[in-house]
Amino acid sequence: MAGDNPEAQYIAGGTNLIDLMKRGVTSPAKLIDINHLPLRKIEHRNDRVRIGALALNSDVAEHRLIQTRQPLLAQALLAGASGQLRNMATVGGNLLQRTRCSYFYDLALPCNKRKPGSGCGAEEGINRTHAIFFAGNGFGGIEKSSCLAVHPSDMCVALTALETTVVVNGPDGERRVMMKDFHRLTTQQPELDTNLRPGELITAIEVEDNAFARHSHYLKVRDRASYAFALVSVAAALQIDGGKIWDARMALGGVAHKPWRYWAVDLMLRGQAPSEKLFREVAEHEMKSAKATEQNAFKIRLTSNAIVAALKLAAGIS
Ligand code: SF4
């Protein structure tokens, strides 16, 4: 177990870790290959879909259970990476993806995430793709120890909207972590992306049954049509009956250090008839707390428009 050696790391698909090692961003003293573990099963059990951590992204996206019960997750997986990468990447690895901030990958430049206390190259550098939402809305004078990077995973945005549980196992046994608590915002320790404890291994994720399958949509806005990370993404899930919305969930990608859960969306939409006017009000409400860097003010309008578009697509209105 990696808990015996703090310098050790688990490896499965290796689609991000090998890249980080080649560039010298990370250099674990020991790699523990976990591909032989029986963690690939995708099944429906006790009112939830349980997906083993070693299930491949492509297998999850194409699985009948996911396509019929959790289509938002299938859409997000198909929006991420290339077919080749999806055939290698695992669900557990997807949860642990590191940011694609270019300063993080360039050893010659300062980066608090790679080398805590060295500064943030993006703060006064190229920050067009960086965050617009921060811990406690505290941006505006970025703390010296902090980080403006965004979380890169599409899958995690859908999982956050769906209030997924992450099952982990470690030296202290099994524990279950809600997606909202799995990744971290940065005010301190930007080198840490998650709240995993030393030696812990993700073993599965669980998505509870819900009534969103007929009205959900994952919208990804990016600079080019394929193999690009999101400038902004929206996972929107609605339960609509009798012409009214009875439940709503939303998470945003490409806007914060972790998938950004839009908590007020349910309160604002519940009991209302879907309309573009209503969705615009919802979008603009959340954007009031967004803070742009020098180069990414465009993301505030872009995110607002993406929220409206995703909600319209989920609701099936033109
Ligand atoms: Fe490093 Fe984060 Fe700053 Fe990028 S935004 S340079 S990852 S500290």
Helix content: 25-40%
Q: Pick out the low-confidence regions.
A: 137-141
Q: What does the radius of gyration come to?
A: 19 Å
Q: How are helices and strands ordered from N to C?
A: EHEEEHHHHHHHEEHEEEEEHHH
CATH superfamily of one domain: CO dehydrogenase flavoprotein, C-terminal domain
What's the multimeric state? single chain
Note the overall shape. Answer: globular
What small molecules does the structure contain? iron/sulfur cluster
Kindly name the structural category: alpha+beta
CATH class of one domain: Alpha Beta
Tell me the CATH topology of one domain.
Enolase-like, domain 1
From the N-terminal CA to the C-terminal CA, the straight-line distance is 53 Å
Mean pLDDT: 94
Q: Order of strands across the biggest sheet?
A: 3-4-7-5-6
| Major beta-sheet overview | 5 strands, antiparallel
DSSP, total strands: 11
Query: What proportion of the residues form beta strands (DSSP E)?
Result: 15-25%
Organism: Dyadobacter fermentans (strain ATCC 700827 / DSM 18053 / CIP 107007 / KCTC 52180 / NS114)
GO molecular function, one term: FAD binding
Protein name: Molybdopterin dehydrogenase FAD-binding
Keywords: FAD, Flavoprotein
